[in-house]
Design a protein that fits this description.
CATH architecture of the largest domain in chain A: 3-Layer(aba) Sandwich
Distance between the termini of chain A: 64 Å
Strand order of the largest sheet of chain B: 2-1-3-4-6-5-7-8
CATH topology of the largest domain in chain A: Rossmann fold
Helix content of chain A: 40-55%
Number of helices of chain B: 10
CATH topology of chain B: Rossmann fold
Order of helices and strands of chain B: HEEHEHHEHEHEHHEEHH
Shape of chain A: globular
CATH class of the largest domain in chain A: Alpha Beta
Mean pLDDT of chain A: 97
Shape of chain B: globular
Largest sheet of chain A: 6 strands, mixed
Order of helices and strands of chain A: EHEHEHEHHEHEHEEHEHEEHEEHEHEHEH
Number of strands of chain A: 16
Strand content of chain A: 15-25%
Number of helices of chain A: 14
Strand content of chain B: 5-15%
CATH architecture of chain B: 3-Layer(aba) Sandwich
Radius of gyration of chain A: 22 Å
Number of domains of chain B: 1
Helix content of chain B: 25-40%
Low-confidence stretches of chain A: none
Oligomer: heterodimer
């Protein structure tokens, strides 16, 4: 049942806002931070113009914003909020806190490199810092996917076997400010997929006094609740598959936990996430034209981590390379370690190479992709896996040397 | 308005058996506040001593409770209040199910870490109550200096020593005036030694929409190094010496609800508390005692 569809040129931010508008959200505590601000401006405008029936409040910080979002959700309304980078860090304490409250609200994070140095363009140190908090995480490559993921995220978060908050992530600038043709689903059809929020779990009312978020004393009590969160988060894996299947039936497009690109017969696999995957796909396509059997695996559902799907996607490949658009300083790529953990007990596993690239929105050039492809093939033929590499071109280094001279440090 | 302690309701909203310290002045103040508020409340708590009132699976309250974190209880109150309003407006919740939203924090959260989120909530004219139990230091961590610690107090981080015989050299922040500068509709100081005054203040602000804020002086036997049985006495002495003025501000206009007929010297209040003992022994620090008396005199002029 596809209904009447309209397509519009929307930015990633506007796509998220449309997803929220279609989701019958009741309440939006907000706080501006670049590059997500367009999301909350759009929502605020629609509410003020009467096109959305929701409460909107500008809080005094992201810390307060996430608190208000969690508290409102615990009181029984459908909540959305958005942040980015420094904002996510400022509210960090509350990420752990509200996920422990088991409140199913949705938050957009528009990725942006973390200070210092302070910057604007994207990488994923912000969102990956939140990977252990209990929030579900969906990472998007396109504007359409960003809109659709908001709808999916509510279904996932509100499922009674999950009841955890969810983050929908996209890259700042590269997606937040890029216009793409986006199909805005019909509201009535969305309502069939995502009915209005009617919580049946704990929330505050006079006839039902309860204590929430209370202290526990004793490791066995603490562990019990933490394990429950972990198991609920893992439940989201199978629920995700049901929900995305239903989404596909309803809207005619689907999203797996991971996405394969030219993967079927690939001997070598590039692993990426978010909008830079589009660059990776272009590079894979170029390589294919040269006759190289290379494919790309894009990570979409990061929490819960779809280990089985990743293992399946990498089965029988010769080598694989993770491009981490993040850096765990003193260790290296965060996703590399996670993928390595998934593969370790496999008898037949591909060699796994690690590259750091795209930090603070740094471009990944054709030459860098070619370098990665060569490295994978070379590793396979020699059996020697190279040390993790920090991608940087000679031209970029020359430019940096020039800037240092300008700064008097040359 | 009631005149006598005999007019207080017998109904309790907080039941006995809490893990609070013996003689906790804050708990006594809270008990009287909750008597005045009734049972349809949700207490939104910030990290502090009273966080341990609700330890899984127990709660001493007849009402609801939400623990947030140290800095953000007023933001939690915002979320709960807004959500209740939305549910009632959209017809998804009966008005009878509505709750009074009550922030409960210590002075560390109120004076220091949570000042920004409190400022935001008052600025947004949030319809809520705020009860700060002020024991004049970070009590739950063992009594370290906070923005509420008075001049001359010994705390875990302002030990009187040879280089600094005074204890705390800094003065207590004037939270009443900080809050009043936001022009909240109602604001008051209270003391557990004056339950009639507490009841009347809650009565007075009943029905007012917007922030209704209370700072409760809270004798703390372990931190003040006083005997638990004397907490009410010290609370009373703080009022009688003029150190803790009982006052209120209705739409910004300040009125004292009790002006002692004859002020007792501050020394009576200070000298029996362990946290001020160094001002008297082994050497009497005349300047410091005089300084504290003069501050009180200046205030009441």
């Amino acid at each position: 049942m596809l209904g009447k569809m309209t397509k519009q040129m929307l930015t990633g931010n506007a796509s998220i806002a449309w997803g929220v508008r279609l989701s019958d959200v009741d309440y939006i505590p907000a706080y501006p931070v670049t590059p997500q601000t367009e999301i909350i401006e759009s929502l605020s405008k629609w509410i003020r113009e009467g096109q959305m029936d929701a409460g909107f409040v500008t809080m005094d910080s992201e810390h307060s914003m996430i608190t208000a979002a969690g508290a409102a959700s615990a009181t029984g309304v459908r909540v959305f909020t958005a942040t980015s980078s420094q904002g996510l860090m400022y509210g960090f304490e509350m990420l752990y806190t509200v996920s422990g409250w088991r409140v199913p609200f949705v938050m957009a994070n528009v990725s942006r490199g973390l200070s210092s140095p302070i910057t604007l363009e994207p990488d994923h140190n912000d969102i990956l810092a939140a990977r252990d908090t209990g929030f579900l995480q969906i990472h998007c490559e396109t504007c359409q996917e960003a809109l659709d993921s908001i709808l999916i995220a509510y279904r996932l978060a509100e499922d009674k076997s999950v009841l955890l908050p969810a983050i929908v992530n996209m890259d700042g600038f590269y997606l937040s400010f890029t216009r793409e043709p986006v199909e805005i689903p019909n509201k009535e059809i969305v309502r069939e997929f995502l009915p209005p929020y009617k919580p049946t779990h704990a929330f505050f009312r006079a006839s039902q006094p309860m204590a929430q978020g209370v202290a526990v004393l004793g490791g066995h009590i603490y562990s019990y609740f933490k394990y429950q969160m972990h198991m609920a988060n893992n439940n989201a894996l199978s629920i995700y598959k049901e929900v995305s299947e239903e989404f596909k039936e309803t809207f005619g497009r689907g999203y797996g936990t991971v996405e394969g690109y030219m993967l079927d017969d690939a001997e070598y696999v590039l692993i990426m996430s978010n909008s830079f995957s589009a660059m990776g796909k272009a590079a894979v396509k170029r390589a294919r034209e040269k006759g190289l059997r290379i494919g790309l695996l894009r990570l979409r559902l990061l929490r819960p981590f779809p280990e089985e799907d990743i293992r399946e996607a990498l089965k029988g490949r010769k080598a694989s390379a993770v491009i981490d658009q993040n850096i765990s300083v003193g260790k290296g790529g965060i996703l590399y370690s996670e993928i390595a953990g998934v593969l370790y007990n496999e008898k037949q596993r591909p060699l796994l190479l690690s590259f750091i690239g795209g930090l603070g929105g740094k471009n990944i050039s054709d030459a860098e992709f070619d370098f990665i492809f060569d490295a994978m093939m070379n590793a396979y033929s020699t059996g020697n896996v190279p040390q993790p590499a920090l991608l940087y071109t000679e031209a970029e280094l020359e430019e940096m040397e020039r800037l240092k001279r300008v700064a008097g440090k040359g | 308005m009631i005149k006598s302690i005999k007019d207080l309701t017998f109904e309790e909203q907080m039941l006995p058996g809490t893990p609070a310290c013996a003689g906790c002045g804050g708990l006594l103040a809270l008990r009287h506040c909750l008597k005045a508020l009734g049972e349809k409340t949700v207490i939104v708590n910030a990290a502090g001593c009273f966080t341990l009132l609700c330890v899984y699976p127990f709660t001493p309250f007849k009402s609801s409770w939400l623990y947030t974190a140290m800095a953000c209880a007023p933001a939690g109150a915002q979320g709960v209040r807004d959500a209740l309003n939305i549910l009632i407006k959209k017809g998804r919740l009966d008005e009878k199910e509505d709750l009074k939203v009550v922030v409960l924090t210590g002075d560390g959260a109120a004076y220091d870490m949570g000042l920004s989120s409190t400022s935001g909530a008052i600025y947004r004219n949030l319809d809520f109550y705020y009860i700060c139990y002020d024991n004049e230091a970070y009590g739950n961590t063992g009594f370290q200096s906070s923005g509420a610690t008075p001049f001359g107090s010994k705390t875990g981080t302002t030990l009187p020593a040879e280089l600094n015989p005074l204890g705390s050299e800094l003065s207590k922040k004037d939270l009443f005036e900080i809050w009043r500068s936001h022009k909240p509709p109602y604001l008051a100081t209270i003391s557990p030694s004056h339950p009639v005054d507490i009841a009347n203040k809650f009565k007075k602000c009943e029905g007012i929409k917007g922030p209704k804020l209370f700072i409760a002086h809270s004798p703390c036997p372990p931190g003040w190094a006083t005997e638990p049985r004397l907490s009410a006495k010290f609370a009373k002495l703080a009022v009688e010496t003029g150190i803790w003025p009982l006052k209120e501000a209705l739409y910004g206009e300040v009125k004292h609800t009790l002006i002692p007929k004859k002020f007792k010297p501050v020394e009576e209040y200070l000298s029996e508390q362990g946290r001020f003992a160094h001002l008297f022994k082994p050497i009497r620090q005349e300047e410091a005692i005089k300084n504290i008396q003069e501050r009180v005199n200046r205030y009441w002029k």
